Protein backbone atom coordinates (compact mmCIF):
# COMPACT_ATOMS: atom_id res chain seq x y z
CA UNK A 1 0.00 0.00 0.00
CA UNK A 2 2.71 2.47 0.99
CA UNK A 3 4.70 1.64 -2.11
CA UNK A 4 1.56 2.20 -4.15
CA UNK A 5 0.97 5.65 -2.63
CA UNK A 6 4.56 6.65 -3.39
CA UNK A 7 4.24 5.34 -6.95
CA UNK A 8 1.00 7.25 -7.50
CA UNK A 9 2.47 10.45 -6.04
CA UNK A 10 5.43 10.12 -8.41
CA UNK A 11 3.00 9.57 -11.30
CA UNK A 12 1.45 12.98 -10.66
CA UNK A 13 4.79 14.66 -11.46
CA UNK A 14 4.61 14.16 -15.26
CA UNK A 15 0.94 15.18 -15.24
CA UNK A 16 1.68 18.42 -13.39
CA UNK A 17 4.74 18.85 -15.59
CA UNK A 18 2.55 18.85 -18.69
CA UNK A 19 0.21 21.37 -17.06
CA UNK A 20 3.17 23.62 -16.19
CA UNK A 21 4.71 23.41 -19.67
CA UNK A 22 1.32 24.03 -21.24
CA UNK A 23 0.31 27.14 -19.27
CA UNK A 24 3.83 28.50 -19.62
CA UNK A 25 4.33 27.89 -23.32
CA UNK A 26 0.91 29.32 -24.22
CA UNK A 27 2.63 32.70 -24.04
CA UNK A 28 4.86 31.55 -26.90
CA UNK A 29 2.43 29.38 -28.85
CA UNK A 30 -0.48 31.77 -29.31
CA UNK A 31 -0.43 33.70 -32.58
CA UNK A 32 0.49 37.36 -32.36
CA UNK A 33 2.59 39.11 -29.75
CA UNK A 34 1.16 38.37 -26.29
CA UNK A 35 2.78 41.52 -24.88
CA UNK A 36 0.83 43.63 -27.37
CA UNK A 37 -2.44 41.81 -26.62
CA UNK A 38 -1.94 42.06 -22.86
CA UNK A 39 -1.04 45.73 -23.07
CA UNK A 40 -4.35 46.46 -24.78
CA UNK A 41 -5.43 48.81 -27.54
CA UNK A 42 -4.26 52.06 -25.96
CA UNK A 43 -0.75 51.01 -24.94
CA UNK A 44 2.37 52.94 -25.87
CA UNK A 45 5.53 51.32 -27.18
CA UNK A 46 7.05 51.70 -23.71
CA UNK A 47 4.11 49.87 -22.09
CA UNK A 48 4.55 46.93 -24.45
CA UNK A 49 8.30 46.83 -23.81
CA UNK A 50 7.71 46.94 -20.05
CA UNK A 51 5.21 44.04 -20.18
CA UNK A 52 7.50 42.06 -22.47
CA UNK A 53 10.34 42.44 -19.98
CA UNK A 54 8.03 41.57 -17.07
CA UNK A 55 6.85 38.35 -18.74
CA UNK A 56 10.45 37.58 -19.67
CA UNK A 57 9.53 37.43 -23.33
CA UNK A 58 12.82 39.16 -24.16
CA UNK A 59 14.72 36.07 -23.03
CA UNK A 60 14.99 32.70 -24.78
CA UNK A 61 12.29 30.12 -23.97
CA UNK A 62 14.37 27.52 -22.11
CA UNK A 63 16.06 30.02 -19.78
CA UNK A 64 12.79 31.72 -18.97
CA UNK A 65 11.02 28.38 -18.41
CA UNK A 66 13.78 27.13 -16.14
CA UNK A 67 13.66 30.28 -14.01
CA UNK A 68 9.88 30.21 -13.87
CA UNK A 69 9.65 26.51 -12.95
CA UNK A 70 12.30 26.93 -10.25
CA UNK A 71 10.30 29.82 -8.79
CA UNK A 72 7.00 27.90 -8.95
CA UNK A 73 8.55 24.93 -7.15
CA UNK A 74 9.49 27.39 -4.39
CA UNK A 75 5.93 28.68 -4.15
CA UNK A 76 6.57 31.82 -6.18
CA UNK A 77 3.89 32.08 -8.87
CA UNK A 78 5.19 35.34 -10.32
CA UNK A 79 4.10 38.97 -10.07
CA UNK A 80 0.74 40.32 -11.20
CA UNK A 81 1.12 42.75 -14.12
CA UNK A 82 -1.66 45.04 -12.97
CA UNK A 83 -1.22 45.21 -9.18
CA UNK A 84 2.50 44.37 -8.97
CA UNK A 85 1.74 42.03 -6.06
CA UNK A 86 2.90 38.40 -5.86
CA UNK A 87 0.32 36.08 -7.47
CA UNK A 88 0.68 33.56 -4.63
CA UNK A 89 -0.33 36.21 -2.10
CA UNK A 90 -3.28 37.37 -4.23
CA UNK A 91 -4.52 33.80 -4.47
CA UNK A 92 -3.94 33.26 -0.76
CA UNK A 93 -6.12 36.24 0.11
CA UNK A 94 -8.98 34.82 -1.94
CA UNK A 95 -8.84 31.17 -0.87
CA UNK A 96 -11.34 31.27 1.99
CA UNK A 97 -14.57 32.14 0.11
CA UNK A 98 -13.78 29.68 -2.67
CA UNK A 99 -13.01 26.82 -0.29
CA UNK A 100 -16.16 27.59 1.72
CA UNK A 101 -18.30 27.67 -1.43
CA UNK A 102 -16.93 24.50 -3.03
CA UNK A 103 -16.90 22.47 0.19
CA UNK A 104 -20.45 23.47 1.07
CA UNK A 105 -21.58 22.66 -2.49
CA UNK A 106 -19.77 19.33 -2.44
CA UNK A 107 -21.43 18.35 0.83
CA UNK A 108 -25.00 19.27 -0.11
CA UNK A 109 -24.59 17.79 -3.59
CA UNK A 110 -23.48 14.42 -2.24
CA UNK A 111 -26.12 14.44 0.52
CA UNK A 112 -28.92 14.98 -1.99
CA UNK A 113 -27.65 13.33 -5.17
CA UNK A 114 -26.62 9.90 -3.84
CA UNK A 115 -30.01 9.15 -2.18
CA UNK A 116 -31.73 10.41 -5.33
CA UNK A 117 -29.78 7.96 -7.45
CA UNK A 118 -30.37 5.11 -5.00
CA UNK A 119 -34.13 5.73 -4.89
CA UNK A 120 -34.31 6.07 -8.68
CA UNK A 121 -32.58 2.69 -9.13
CA UNK A 122 -34.81 1.10 -6.49
CA UNK A 123 -37.96 2.40 -8.18
CA UNK A 124 -36.56 1.93 -11.70
CA UNK A 125 -39.14 2.70 -14.37
CA UNK A 126 -41.61 4.26 -11.93
CA UNK A 127 -42.47 7.95 -11.59
CA UNK A 128 -39.81 8.59 -8.93
CA UNK A 129 -37.16 7.25 -11.29
CA UNK A 130 -38.52 9.37 -14.13
CA UNK A 131 -38.51 12.46 -11.92
CA UNK A 132 -34.87 11.91 -10.94
CA UNK A 133 -33.84 11.28 -14.53
CA UNK A 134 -35.72 14.40 -15.67
CA UNK A 135 -33.85 16.35 -13.01
CA UNK A 136 -30.58 14.84 -14.24
CA UNK A 137 -31.19 15.85 -17.86
CA UNK A 138 -32.47 19.34 -17.05
CA UNK A 139 -29.84 19.93 -14.37
CA UNK A 140 -27.17 19.11 -16.90
CA UNK A 141 -28.64 21.52 -19.46
CA UNK A 142 -29.35 24.72 -17.52
CA UNK A 143 -26.08 26.68 -17.34
CA UNK A 144 -24.93 27.71 -13.87
CA UNK A 145 -25.37 31.43 -14.36
CA UNK A 146 -28.87 31.06 -15.80
CA UNK A 147 -29.90 28.98 -12.81
CA UNK A 148 -28.15 31.45 -10.50
CA UNK A 149 -30.21 34.37 -11.82
CA UNK A 150 -33.43 32.35 -11.74
CA UNK A 151 -32.75 31.60 -8.06
CA UNK A 152 -31.98 35.26 -7.35
CA UNK A 153 -35.11 36.43 -9.17
CA UNK A 154 -37.29 33.87 -7.40
CA UNK A 155 -35.94 33.51 -3.88
CA UNK A 156 -34.06 36.76 -3.23
CA UNK A 157 -35.91 39.47 -5.15
CA UNK A 158 -39.32 37.79 -5.39
CA UNK A 159 -39.78 36.15 -2.00
CA UNK A 160 -37.00 38.06 -0.21
CA UNK A 161 -35.95 34.88 1.58
CA UNK A 162 -32.18 35.12 1.13
CA UNK A 163 -29.62 37.85 0.43
CA UNK A 164 -29.04 38.61 -3.24
CA UNK A 165 -25.25 38.72 -3.32
CA UNK A 166 -22.14 39.00 -1.25
CA UNK A 167 -20.00 36.96 1.09
CA UNK A 168 -19.52 37.09 4.86
CA UNK A 169 -16.68 35.26 6.55
CA UNK A 170 -17.61 32.53 9.01
CA UNK A 171 -15.76 34.50 11.73
CA UNK A 172 -18.51 37.14 11.53
CA UNK A 173 -21.28 34.75 12.45
CA UNK A 174 -22.45 31.38 11.24
CA UNK A 175 -25.92 32.26 9.94
CA UNK A 176 -24.88 35.33 7.90
CA UNK A 177 -22.10 33.14 6.45
CA UNK A 178 -24.46 30.28 5.67
CA UNK A 179 -27.39 32.25 4.26
CA UNK A 180 -25.14 33.86 1.64
CA UNK A 181 -23.79 30.47 0.58
CA UNK A 182 -27.14 28.71 0.05
CA UNK A 183 -28.07 30.14 -3.38
CA UNK A 184 -24.54 30.05 -4.83
CA UNK A 185 -24.17 26.45 -3.70
CA UNK A 186 -27.45 25.36 -5.27
CA UNK A 187 -26.55 27.12 -8.53
CA UNK A 188 -23.06 25.66 -8.55
CA UNK A 189 -24.16 22.22 -7.37
CA UNK A 190 -27.07 21.29 -9.63
CA UNK A 191 -24.96 20.15 -12.62
CA UNK A 192 -22.74 18.19 -10.27
CA UNK A 193 -25.77 16.67 -8.53
CA UNK A 194 -27.25 15.67 -11.89
CA UNK A 195 -24.03 13.87 -12.77
CA UNK A 196 -23.72 12.10 -9.40
CA UNK A 197 -27.40 11.08 -9.35
CA UNK A 198 -27.11 9.62 -12.84
CA UNK A 199 -24.00 7.58 -12.12
CA UNK A 200 -25.35 6.45 -8.73
CA UNK A 201 -28.50 5.17 -10.41
CA UNK A 202 -26.55 3.36 -13.13
CA UNK A 203 -24.15 1.79 -10.65
CA UNK A 204 -26.99 0.75 -8.33
CA UNK A 205 -28.95 -0.80 -11.23
CA UNK A 206 -25.90 -2.94 -12.01
CA UNK A 207 -25.58 -4.14 -8.44
CA UNK A 208 -29.32 -4.63 -7.84
CA UNK A 209 -29.45 -7.25 -10.61
CA UNK A 210 -26.85 -9.42 -8.81
CA UNK A 211 -27.73 -12.77 -7.23
CA UNK A 212 -26.71 -11.80 -3.70
CA UNK A 213 -29.27 -8.98 -3.71
CA UNK A 214 -32.01 -11.49 -4.58
CA UNK A 215 -30.73 -13.74 -1.80
CA UNK A 216 -30.84 -10.89 0.68
CA UNK A 217 -34.37 -10.02 -0.37
CA UNK A 218 -35.43 -13.66 -0.31
CA UNK A 219 -34.30 -14.15 3.24
CA UNK A 220 -36.59 -11.28 4.19
CA UNK A 221 -34.19 -8.42 4.83
CA UNK A 222 -35.69 -4.96 5.05
CA UNK A 223 -35.52 -2.99 1.81
CA UNK A 224 -33.40 -0.21 3.25
CA UNK A 225 -30.87 -2.68 4.64
CA UNK A 226 -30.55 -4.35 1.27
CA UNK A 227 -30.27 -1.02 -0.50
CA UNK A 228 -27.69 0.55 1.77
CA UNK A 229 -25.88 -2.37 3.39
CA UNK A 230 -25.63 -4.62 0.36
CA UNK A 231 -26.20 -2.58 -2.78
CA UNK A 232 -24.82 0.90 -2.11
CA UNK A 233 -21.68 -0.48 -0.53
CA UNK A 234 -20.92 -2.48 -3.64
CA UNK A 235 -21.92 0.35 -5.97
CA UNK A 236 -19.66 2.84 -4.20
CA UNK A 237 -16.55 2.76 -6.39
CA UNK A 238 -18.05 4.34 -9.55
CA UNK A 239 -19.94 6.86 -7.38
CA UNK A 240 -16.83 8.01 -5.54
CA UNK A 241 -14.97 8.15 -8.86
CA UNK A 242 -17.53 10.49 -10.40
CA UNK A 243 -17.56 12.65 -7.25
CA UNK A 244 -13.81 13.09 -7.78
CA UNK A 245 -13.92 13.67 -11.54
CA UNK A 246 -16.89 16.01 -11.17
CA UNK A 247 -14.78 18.37 -9.04
CA UNK A 248 -13.69 19.78 -12.43
CA UNK A 249 -17.28 20.99 -12.88
CA UNK A 250 -17.15 22.75 -9.52
CA UNK A 251 -13.81 24.41 -10.30
CA UNK A 252 -15.05 25.65 -13.69
CA UNK A 253 -18.35 26.69 -12.14
CA UNK A 254 -16.75 28.68 -9.32
CA UNK A 255 -15.55 31.28 -11.84
CA UNK A 256 -19.11 31.97 -12.96
CA UNK A 257 -20.84 31.56 -9.60
CA UNK A 258 -18.53 33.99 -7.84
CA UNK A 259 -19.12 36.52 -10.61
CA UNK A 260 -22.92 36.34 -10.35
CA UNK A 261 -23.04 36.37 -6.55
CA UNK A 262 -20.22 38.90 -6.06
CA UNK A 263 -18.15 36.50 -3.93
CA UNK A 264 -14.55 37.73 -3.56
CA UNK A 265 -12.90 34.36 -4.21
CA UNK A 266 -10.40 32.90 -6.66
CA UNK A 267 -13.02 32.74 -9.41
CA UNK A 268 -13.63 36.47 -9.13
CA UNK A 269 -9.86 37.02 -9.11
CA UNK A 270 -9.67 35.06 -12.38
CA UNK A 271 -12.41 37.07 -14.05
CA UNK A 272 -10.81 40.37 -12.98
CA UNK A 273 -7.50 39.05 -14.32
CA UNK A 274 -9.09 38.23 -17.68
CA UNK A 275 -10.54 41.72 -18.02
CA UNK A 276 -7.09 43.19 -17.29
CA UNK A 277 -5.31 40.47 -19.29
CA UNK A 278 -3.19 39.78 -16.23
CA UNK A 279 -1.77 36.48 -17.47
CA UNK A 280 0.48 35.63 -14.49
CA UNK A 281 -2.63 35.42 -12.29
CA UNK A 282 -4.43 33.16 -14.75
CA UNK A 283 -1.32 30.98 -14.97
CA UNK A 284 -1.14 30.71 -11.18
CA UNK A 285 -4.85 29.95 -10.78
CA UNK A 286 -4.74 27.18 -13.39
CA UNK A 287 -1.64 25.60 -11.85
CA UNK A 288 -3.20 25.66 -8.40
CA UNK A 289 -6.63 24.34 -9.43
CA UNK A 290 -5.08 21.58 -11.55
CA UNK A 291 -2.85 20.51 -8.66
CA UNK A 292 -5.88 20.38 -6.34
CA UNK A 293 -7.83 18.40 -8.93
CA UNK A 294 -5.01 15.89 -9.45
CA UNK A 295 -4.54 15.42 -5.70
CA UNK A 296 -8.26 14.93 -5.04
CA UNK A 297 -8.43 12.25 -7.71
CA UNK A 298 -5.36 10.61 -6.22
CA UNK A 299 -7.19 10.46 -2.88
CA UNK A 300 -10.21 8.99 -4.68
CA UNK A 301 -8.02 6.24 -6.15
CA UNK A 302 -6.58 5.48 -2.74
CA UNK A 303 -10.06 5.35 -1.19
CA UNK A 304 -10.93 2.35 -3.38
CA UNK A 305 -9.16 0.03 -0.97
CA UNK A 306 -11.39 1.23 1.86
CA UNK A 307 -14.56 0.95 -0.20
CA UNK A 308 -13.87 -2.42 -1.76
CA UNK A 309 -11.69 -4.88 0.14
CA UNK A 310 -11.21 -6.86 -3.07
CA UNK A 311 -9.05 -4.02 -4.40
CA UNK A 312 -5.50 -4.44 -3.10
CA UNK A 313 -2.45 -2.56 -4.18
CA UNK B 1 -48.12 7.11 -52.17
CA UNK B 2 -51.26 5.03 -51.56
CA UNK B 3 -53.62 5.79 -48.70
CA UNK B 4 -52.62 2.59 -46.92
CA UNK B 5 -48.91 3.45 -47.13
CA UNK B 6 -49.62 6.95 -45.85
CA UNK B 7 -51.54 5.50 -42.91
CA UNK B 8 -48.73 3.05 -42.20
CA UNK B 9 -46.25 5.90 -42.24
CA UNK B 10 -48.43 7.96 -39.90
CA UNK B 11 -48.74 4.94 -37.63
CA UNK B 12 -44.97 4.62 -37.57
CA UNK B 13 -44.47 8.29 -36.75
CA UNK B 14 -46.97 8.00 -33.91
CA UNK B 15 -45.16 4.90 -32.67
CA UNK B 16 -41.81 6.76 -32.56
CA UNK B 17 -43.46 9.69 -30.79
CA UNK B 18 -45.03 7.37 -28.22
CA UNK B 19 -41.85 5.46 -27.49
CA UNK B 20 -39.37 8.32 -27.50
CA UNK B 21 -41.25 11.51 -26.62
CA UNK B 22 -38.16 13.26 -25.24
CA UNK B 23 -36.05 12.58 -28.34
CA UNK B 24 -38.79 13.88 -30.60
CA UNK B 25 -39.18 16.97 -28.40
CA UNK B 26 -35.41 17.56 -28.47
CA UNK B 27 -35.23 17.20 -32.25
CA UNK B 28 -38.17 19.54 -32.80
CA UNK B 29 -36.72 22.18 -30.43
CA UNK B 30 -33.35 21.94 -32.12
CA UNK B 31 -34.91 22.32 -35.57
CA UNK B 32 -36.81 25.38 -34.37
CA UNK B 33 -33.57 26.90 -33.02
CA UNK B 34 -31.78 26.13 -36.28
CA UNK B 35 -34.63 27.75 -38.20
CA UNK B 36 -34.42 30.86 -35.98
CA UNK B 37 -30.66 31.05 -36.58
CA UNK B 38 -31.02 30.66 -40.35
CA UNK B 39 -33.98 33.00 -40.68
CA UNK B 40 -32.62 35.64 -38.25
CA UNK B 41 -32.47 38.34 -40.99
CA UNK B 42 -36.23 37.89 -41.48
CA UNK B 43 -37.21 37.54 -37.84
CA UNK B 44 -35.69 40.63 -36.24
CA UNK B 45 -37.88 43.62 -35.57
CA UNK B 46 -35.32 46.37 -34.88
CA UNK B 47 -31.70 46.43 -36.06
CA UNK B 48 -29.89 44.48 -33.29
CA UNK B 49 -26.89 46.83 -33.43
CA UNK B 50 -28.85 50.10 -33.49
CA UNK B 51 -27.97 52.15 -30.42
CA UNK B 52 -30.62 54.57 -29.22
CA UNK B 53 -30.12 56.24 -25.82
CA UNK B 54 -33.69 57.58 -25.89
CA UNK B 55 -35.28 54.14 -25.62
CA UNK B 56 -32.83 52.51 -23.21
CA UNK B 57 -33.95 50.04 -20.55
CA UNK B 58 -37.54 49.75 -21.79
CA UNK B 59 -39.61 46.97 -20.25
CA UNK B 60 -40.82 44.20 -22.59
CA UNK B 61 -43.75 45.55 -24.59
CA UNK B 62 -45.59 45.12 -27.84
CA UNK B 63 -42.88 47.07 -29.65
CA UNK B 64 -39.82 45.76 -27.76
CA UNK B 65 -40.78 42.13 -27.18
CA UNK B 66 -37.90 41.35 -24.79
CA UNK B 67 -37.27 45.00 -23.75
CA UNK B 68 -34.18 47.09 -24.53
CA UNK B 69 -30.70 47.13 -22.97
CA UNK B 70 -28.75 50.01 -21.46
CA UNK B 71 -27.74 51.28 -24.89
CA UNK B 72 -31.30 51.08 -26.16
CA UNK B 73 -30.68 48.05 -28.35
CA UNK B 74 -33.59 45.67 -28.88
CA UNK B 75 -33.03 42.53 -26.78
CA UNK B 76 -35.36 40.36 -28.88
CA UNK B 77 -33.50 41.03 -32.12
CA UNK B 78 -30.15 40.49 -30.38
CA UNK B 79 -31.32 37.17 -28.90
CA UNK B 80 -32.47 36.04 -32.34
CA UNK B 81 -29.03 36.83 -33.77
CA UNK B 82 -27.34 35.28 -30.74
CA UNK B 83 -28.70 31.87 -31.75
CA UNK B 84 -26.33 31.97 -34.72
CA UNK B 85 -23.25 32.26 -32.54
CA UNK B 86 -24.29 29.53 -30.11
CA UNK B 87 -25.27 27.01 -32.77
CA UNK B 88 -22.23 27.79 -34.93
CA UNK B 89 -19.84 27.43 -31.99
CA UNK B 90 -21.54 24.22 -30.82
CA UNK B 91 -21.45 22.65 -34.27
CA UNK B 92 -17.90 23.74 -35.17
CA UNK B 93 -16.44 22.60 -31.86
CA UNK B 94 -18.25 19.26 -32.08
CA UNK B 95 -17.00 18.61 -35.63
CA UNK B 96 -13.45 19.88 -35.11
CA UNK B 97 -12.82 18.19 -31.77
CA UNK B 98 -14.24 14.83 -32.87
CA UNK B 99 -12.21 14.97 -36.09
CA UNK B 100 -8.99 15.87 -34.28
CA UNK B 101 -9.66 13.45 -31.42
CA UNK B 102 -10.41 10.70 -33.94
CA UNK B 103 -7.16 11.26 -35.82
CA UNK B 104 -5.02 11.36 -32.67
CA UNK B 105 -6.94 8.54 -30.99
CA UNK B 106 -6.64 6.18 -33.98
CA UNK B 107 -2.88 6.61 -34.14
CA UNK B 108 -2.28 6.43 -30.38
CA UNK B 109 -4.51 3.39 -30.05
CA UNK B 110 -2.55 1.60 -32.74
CA UNK B 111 1.04 2.73 -32.34
CA UNK B 112 2.53 1.89 -28.94
CA UNK B 113 5.40 4.38 -28.98
CA UNK B 114 3.23 7.38 -29.80
CA UNK B 115 0.65 6.17 -27.32
CA UNK B 116 2.89 6.53 -24.27
CA UNK B 117 3.90 10.10 -25.08
CA UNK B 118 0.61 11.45 -26.39
CA UNK B 119 -1.45 10.00 -23.56
CA UNK B 120 0.81 11.60 -20.91
CA UNK B 121 0.21 14.94 -22.61
CA UNK B 122 -3.54 14.26 -22.74
CA UNK B 123 -3.56 13.28 -19.05
CA UNK B 124 -1.95 16.61 -18.24
CA UNK B 125 -4.40 18.59 -20.37
CA UNK B 126 -7.34 16.70 -18.88
CA UNK B 127 -6.34 17.74 -15.38
CA UNK B 128 -7.01 21.37 -16.33
CA UNK B 129 -10.75 22.03 -16.00
CA UNK B 130 -11.98 22.75 -19.59
CA UNK B 131 -13.39 26.21 -18.89
CA UNK B 132 -10.10 27.34 -17.31
CA UNK B 133 -8.13 25.99 -20.24
CA UNK B 134 -10.32 27.94 -22.63
CA UNK B 135 -9.95 31.04 -20.42
CA UNK B 136 -6.15 30.78 -20.57
CA UNK B 137 -6.25 30.59 -24.37
CA UNK B 138 -8.68 33.48 -24.65
CA UNK B 139 -6.60 35.66 -22.33
CA UNK B 140 -3.74 35.54 -24.81
CA UNK B 141 -5.61 35.97 -28.08
CA UNK B 142 -7.84 38.65 -29.55
CA UNK B 143 -11.53 38.17 -28.80
CA UNK B 144 -13.22 36.64 -31.86
CA UNK B 145 -15.67 33.85 -32.60
CA UNK B 146 -12.94 31.86 -34.39
CA UNK B 147 -10.66 32.03 -31.36
CA UNK B 148 -13.51 30.96 -29.07
CA UNK B 149 -14.05 27.91 -31.29
CA UNK B 150 -10.34 27.05 -31.27
CA UNK B 151 -10.07 27.53 -27.48
CA UNK B 152 -13.04 25.27 -26.68
CA UNK B 153 -11.87 22.69 -29.24
CA UNK B 154 -8.43 22.48 -27.61
CA UNK B 155 -10.16 21.95 -24.26
CA UNK B 156 -12.36 19.12 -25.61
CA UNK B 157 -9.88 17.18 -27.75
CA UNK B 158 -8.22 15.19 -24.89
CA UNK B 159 -11.53 13.59 -23.89
CA UNK B 160 -12.36 12.53 -27.47
CA UNK B 161 -8.85 11.14 -27.89
CA UNK B 162 -9.33 9.09 -24.73
CA UNK B 163 -12.62 7.71 -25.99
CA UNK B 164 -11.35 6.81 -29.46
CA UNK B 165 -8.21 5.27 -28.04
CA UNK B 166 -10.18 3.04 -25.66
CA UNK B 167 -12.45 1.91 -28.50
CA UNK B 168 -9.44 1.19 -30.74
CA UNK B 169 -7.64 -0.71 -27.96
CA UNK B 170 -10.62 -3.00 -27.41
CA UNK B 171 -11.18 -3.41 -31.16
CA UNK B 172 -7.64 -4.49 -31.97
CA UNK B 173 -8.08 -7.51 -29.73
CA UNK B 174 -11.24 -8.56 -31.58
CA UNK B 175 -11.06 -11.70 -33.75
CA UNK B 176 -12.23 -9.91 -36.90
CA UNK B 177 -9.34 -7.44 -36.67
CA UNK B 178 -6.84 -10.21 -35.97
CA UNK B 179 -8.26 -12.11 -38.94
CA UNK B 180 -7.86 -9.07 -41.17
CA UNK B 181 -4.26 -8.57 -40.07
CA UNK B 182 -3.50 -12.29 -40.41
CA UNK B 183 -4.86 -12.36 -43.94
CA UNK B 184 -2.40 -9.67 -44.91
CA UNK B 185 -4.50 -6.51 -44.72
CA UNK B 186 -2.26 -3.45 -44.57
CA UNK B 187 -2.06 -0.99 -41.70
CA UNK B 188 -4.01 1.82 -43.35
CA UNK B 189 -6.66 -0.49 -44.74
CA UNK B 190 -7.17 -2.18 -41.37
CA UNK B 191 -7.69 1.19 -39.73
CA UNK B 192 -9.97 2.46 -42.45
CA UNK B 193 -12.09 -0.63 -43.10
CA UNK B 194 -12.22 -2.35 -39.73
CA UNK B 195 -11.43 0.09 -36.93
CA UNK B 196 -12.79 3.43 -38.17
CA UNK B 197 -16.41 2.32 -38.87
CA UNK B 198 -16.71 0.99 -35.33
CA UNK B 199 -15.72 4.31 -33.76
CA UNK B 200 -18.46 6.24 -35.55
CA UNK B 201 -21.35 5.37 -33.22
CA UNK B 202 -19.69 6.34 -29.92
CA UNK B 203 -18.19 9.44 -31.58
CA UNK B 204 -21.56 10.60 -32.83
CA UNK B 205 -22.98 10.37 -29.31
CA UNK B 206 -19.93 12.04 -27.78
CA UNK B 207 -20.02 14.73 -30.45
CA UNK B 208 -23.56 15.69 -29.47
CA UNK B 209 -22.62 16.03 -25.81
CA UNK B 210 -19.56 18.09 -26.81
CA UNK B 211 -21.83 20.35 -28.84
CA UNK B 212 -24.00 20.95 -25.75
CA UNK B 213 -21.04 21.62 -23.48
CA UNK B 214 -19.40 23.90 -26.09
CA UNK B 215 -22.57 26.01 -26.26
CA UNK B 216 -22.46 26.37 -22.46
CA UNK B 217 -18.72 27.13 -22.45
CA UNK B 218 -19.09 29.81 -25.12
CA UNK B 219 -21.85 31.44 -23.05
CA UNK B 220 -19.69 31.26 -19.90
CA UNK B 221 -16.67 32.77 -21.70
CA UNK B 222 -18.76 35.57 -23.17
CA UNK B 223 -20.50 36.14 -19.84
CA UNK B 224 -17.22 36.69 -17.98
CA UNK B 225 -15.81 38.80 -20.80
CA UNK B 226 -13.37 36.31 -22.30
CA UNK B 227 -15.38 35.16 -25.29
CA UNK B 228 -17.18 36.54 -28.29
CA UNK B 229 -16.33 40.27 -28.75
CA UNK B 230 -18.98 42.65 -27.36
CA UNK B 231 -19.97 43.97 -30.80
CA UNK B 232 -21.24 40.52 -31.82
CA UNK B 233 -24.52 39.65 -30.07
CA UNK B 234 -24.26 36.25 -28.40
CA UNK B 235 -26.42 34.96 -25.54
CA UNK B 236 -23.54 35.12 -23.10
CA UNK B 237 -22.70 38.68 -24.17
CA UNK B 238 -26.25 39.92 -23.81
CA UNK B 239 -26.43 38.42 -20.32
CA UNK B 240 -23.07 39.99 -19.44
CA UNK B 241 -24.47 43.39 -20.38
CA UNK B 242 -27.41 42.79 -18.06
CA UNK B 243 -25.17 41.70 -15.19
CA UNK B 244 -24.94 45.04 -13.39
CA UNK B 245 -28.60 45.85 -14.07
CA UNK B 246 -30.32 42.61 -13.18
CA UNK B 247 -32.25 44.12 -10.28
CA UNK B 248 -33.96 46.69 -12.53
CA UNK B 249 -33.88 45.01 -15.95
CA UNK B 250 -34.33 41.30 -15.34
CA UNK B 251 -35.38 40.70 -18.96
CA UNK B 252 -31.91 41.37 -20.38
CA UNK B 253 -30.75 38.23 -18.59
CA UNK B 254 -33.92 36.16 -18.52
CA UNK B 255 -34.66 35.83 -22.26
CA UNK B 256 -31.21 34.88 -23.55
CA UNK B 257 -30.95 32.55 -20.52
CA UNK B 258 -34.14 30.74 -21.51
CA UNK B 259 -33.03 30.40 -25.14
CA UNK B 260 -29.63 29.12 -24.01
CA UNK B 261 -31.10 26.54 -21.62
CA UNK B 262 -33.64 25.27 -24.13
CA UNK B 263 -31.00 24.88 -26.84
CA UNK B 264 -28.64 22.95 -24.58
CA UNK B 265 -31.51 20.79 -23.32
CA UNK B 266 -32.55 20.03 -26.91
CA UNK B 267 -29.02 18.99 -27.89
CA UNK B 268 -28.71 16.81 -24.79
CA UNK B 269 -32.06 15.11 -25.48
CA UNK B 270 -30.97 14.36 -29.04
CA UNK B 271 -27.70 12.98 -27.63
CA UNK B 272 -29.59 10.70 -25.24
CA UNK B 273 -31.72 9.52 -28.14
CA UNK B 274 -28.69 8.78 -30.32
CA UNK B 275 -27.06 6.91 -27.44
CA UNK B 276 -30.18 4.78 -26.90
CA UNK B 277 -30.41 4.02 -30.61
CA UNK B 278 -26.73 3.37 -31.28
CA UNK B 279 -25.56 1.73 -28.07
CA UNK B 280 -28.34 -0.37 -26.57
CA UNK B 281 -26.00 -1.90 -24.00
CA UNK B 282 -25.08 1.46 -22.51
CA UNK B 283 -28.65 2.71 -22.83
CA UNK B 284 -30.01 0.07 -20.49
CA UNK B 285 -27.51 1.10 -17.84
CA UNK B 286 -27.87 4.87 -17.97
Structural class category of chain B: mainly alpha
Tell me which oligomeric state these chains represent: heterodimer
Number of helices of chain B: 12
CATH superfamily of the largest domain in chain A: MetI-like
**Number of strand elements of chain B:** 0
Q: Could you estimate the helical fraction of the residues of chain B in percent?
A: over 70%
Proportion in helices of chain A: over 70%
CATH class of the largest domain in chain A: Mainly Alpha
What spatial form of chain B do the alpha-carbon principal axes imply?
flat
Give the DSSP E fraction of chain B (strand runs of 2 or more residues): under 5%
Mean pLDDT over all positions of chain B: 84
What pair of chains forms the biggest interface?
A: A-B, 59 and 47 residues
Distance separating the two termini of chain A: 5 Å
Rg from alpha-carbon coordinates of chain B: 23 Å
Largest sheet of chain A: none
Total helical elements of chain A: 13
- Can you tell me the CATH topology of the largest domain in chain A? MetI-like fold
- Helices and strands of chain A, in order, run as HHHHHHHHHHHHH
Amino acid sequence: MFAYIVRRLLATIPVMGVVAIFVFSLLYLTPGDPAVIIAGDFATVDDVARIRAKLGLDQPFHIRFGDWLWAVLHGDLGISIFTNLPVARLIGQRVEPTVALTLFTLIIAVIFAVPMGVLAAWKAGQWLDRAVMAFAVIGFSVPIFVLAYLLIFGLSIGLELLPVQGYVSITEGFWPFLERLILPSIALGVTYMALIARITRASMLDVLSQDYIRTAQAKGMAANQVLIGHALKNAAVPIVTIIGIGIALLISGVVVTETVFAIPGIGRLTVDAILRRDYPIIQGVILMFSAVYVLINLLVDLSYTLLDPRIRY
Amino acid sequence: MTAAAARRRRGKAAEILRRHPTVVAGTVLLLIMAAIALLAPYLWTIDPQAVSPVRRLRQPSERYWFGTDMLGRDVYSRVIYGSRISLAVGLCVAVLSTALGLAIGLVTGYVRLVDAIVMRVMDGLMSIPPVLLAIALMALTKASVENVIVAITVAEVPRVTRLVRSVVLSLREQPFVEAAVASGTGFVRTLRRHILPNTIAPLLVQGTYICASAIITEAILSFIGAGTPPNVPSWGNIMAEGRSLFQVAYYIILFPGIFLSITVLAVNLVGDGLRDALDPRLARRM
